[in-house]
């Protein structure tokens, strides 16, 4: 059984358990491709509702919750947010997403127990399964050469808002390949293989058509590249090209 088949089997088990016992069940964090696989199962047809959440609005990696229709009690996702900060700020390095993720995975955990990682200045916030919080707090002591402290975030207001890089440009039409090329400063043709290979998602839904036209406000994710928000058309040039606005997550 390959990884995808195992995931689908596990999802069905969790959905059936929720329905049979009238309880809420949860997956670990799912990447965009796994979320797309989940949606394709159409679990509502067996009487089970599904909601996705990653700890904050518009999270890329999200946890699925399964619950029977008409559930009579409230529940929370078993997600914690932890903050990583240098023990001595003056001696800390400039660290990126790959550095923080590498340090977490080097502790021997699976990628599925860690959600998104947000970085601001020389601090980082990451989401994880509640049951893993104490483990990370006790065992994550270094990121590259920087000694760090890890603490639990108690208030949602402490979590930084995502930061964006604004991009304005023109394209002949609002096609998916054109917007991706503009966002990542490369040619439209070079992005075709990403789309056709199943690496591009719009609002978490897999899109494999180069000519797909996103709508204003759509979140477009390209695995291995990043993600951005399409903010719509701002103008039309004398030559008929469309001026578009893009906000890329940084």
Automatic annotation (TrEMBL):
The keyword RNA-binding applies. PROSITE patterns: S4. Keywords: RNA-binding. Transmembrane segments: none annotated. Residues 174-234 form the RNA-binding S4 domain. InterPro entries: Nucleotide-bd_a/b_plait_sf (IPR012677), RqcP2_RBD (IPR040591), S4_RNA-bd (IPR002942), S4_RNA-bd_sf (IPR036986). Gene3D superfamilies: 3.30.1370.160, 3.30.70.330, RNA-binding S4 domain. This is RNA-binding protein. It comes from Blautia faecis.
């Amino acid at each position: 059984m390959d990884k995808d088949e195992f995931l689908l089997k596990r999802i069905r088990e969790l959905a059936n358990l929720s329905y049979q016992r009238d309880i809420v069940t949860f997956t670990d964090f799912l990447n965009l491709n796994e979320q797309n696989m989940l949606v394709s199962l159409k679990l509502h047809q067996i009487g089970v509702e599904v909601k996705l959440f990653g700890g904050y609005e518009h999270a890329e990696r999200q946890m699925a919750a399964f619950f029977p229709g008409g559930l009579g009690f409230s529940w929370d996702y078993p997600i914690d947010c932890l903050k990583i900060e240098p023990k001595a700020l003056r001696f800390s390095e400039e660290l990126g997403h790959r550095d923080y993720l590498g340090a977490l995975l080097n502790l021997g955990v699976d990628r599925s127990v860690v959600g998104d990682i947000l970085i601001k200045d020389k601090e980082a916030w990451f989401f994880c399964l509640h049951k893993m919080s104490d483990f990370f707090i006790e065992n994550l002591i270094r990121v590259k050469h920087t000694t760090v402290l890890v603490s639990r975030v108690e208030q949602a207001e402490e979590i930084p808002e995502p930061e964006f890089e604004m991009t304005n440009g023109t394209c002949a039409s609002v096609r998916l390949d054109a917007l991706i090329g503009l966002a990542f400063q490369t040619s439209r043709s070079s992005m075709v293989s990403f789309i056709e290979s199943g690496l591009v998602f719009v609002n978490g839904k897999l899109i494999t058509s180069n000519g797909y036209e996103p709508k204003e406000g759509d979140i477009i994710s390209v695995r291995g590249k990043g993600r951005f928000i399409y903010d719509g058309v701002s103008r039309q040039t004398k030559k008929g090209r469309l001026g578009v606005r893009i906000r890329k997550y940084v």
